[in-house]
Amino acid sequence: MYWSGKTSITMFGKKREVILSIDWEEDANFSPIQREAYTNFMSNMDEIMDAVELGIFEYYEDNYEEYRDMAGEVEADKIAPEISTIKELGNLVIPTQLIIRRVRKNGVRRIGLVCDCTWDTDNGVGVRIENEKVEEVDYQDIVL
């Protein structure tokens, strides 16, 4: 079960409204750790999002040639152009959802960021954040 609303985040220098989803326990309460995860994210958004943007940039650099090959010559520059700066990713990636994950026994503050992207419209990009640190960037599945 989850609660859903809206919040704003800043990514690639643009303020964007995204869906905010919070997993909840059976008793329909958010845990103190979930509240702390959201509060810490919002308080440290600039620093966290810098790490998110860098993580997505590195992921893109590692994978874009494969997407260019799949797209073919005509579409390659539209969906997976060669880029050299993080800022250029702002034209390719749009955040859509921030998920405050259910707390596990280890007490880790877990957040997932879901983004649409031009190079993989089916799977998008997901960023797994634990205790305010980027842990993984891959398909959206890692955070859903």
From TrEMBL:
It comes from the Bacteria. It holds the Pfam family DUF6985. This is DUF6985 domain-containing protein. Residues 2-143 form the DUF6985 domain. It comes from Listeria booriae. The lineage of its organism: Bacteria, Bacillati, Bacillota, Bacilli, Bacillales.
